[in-house]
Amino acid sequence: MKFLAKSEPGGYPPGTNPTRILPPLCPILPASRDILSNPDCQKAVDAITEQLTTFTLSYNEMALSLGVRSIHNSLLIFSFHNTPPIFNASGVHKVDGDTVYRIGSITKFFTALPVLQLEGKFKPSESVTEYVPDVLDVKVTGTCFPSVDWSTITVESLLSQLSGI
Asked: 11-15, 48-52, 92-96, 103-107 — which is least confidently predicted?
């Protein structure tokens, strides 16, 4: 576990190294195993629900579902679902925890984020096969999808959605 030096209002104190490792200033307690029974947790859930309810009042045609679960408890700590007043007649009329959303290309964000966290550790202009050599073994047969020449696909083209995949 790493702890960074505490910053003073005007920056780090003279003569200190801002990346110096410090021990924690208080006891480190184990994670709560019964967070649902904590009244402060319930107050926070109520406050967040109230804010989300107010925030989503203007969502005339957009549904929203949020859920938070602890690794220590199989029950949801927080759950919020907004059913918009205007919806597609062929779609879902009531949003709940079982609603399935079509997320489409938004998943590319989840690819880009870890890549950005590796800044300086990779070259966007290199082929994806430099980082994921197993894609060379992928063969698509018996479908209408063309096979992909992975050696020509760069990390940059994937992240910018210009790869044609």
From this structure: 11-15
Distance CA 80, CA 63 (A): 11
Based on the fold, state whether residues 140 and 85 are members of the same structural domain: no
Q: What is the reported pLDDT for 144?
A: 60
pTM for the predicted model, two decimal places: 0.47
Residues 60, 139, single domain; the answer is no
What is the tally of helices (H) and strands (E) in the chain? 3, 2
Does some domain include residue 165?
no
C-alpha torsion sign, points 82, 87, 93, 98: negative
Identify whether residues 57 and 119 lie together within a single domain: no
- What are the backbone angles phi and psi of residue 155, rounded to the nearest 5°? -60, -45
Comparing CA positions, the residue from 26, 44, 27 lying closest to residue 35 is 44
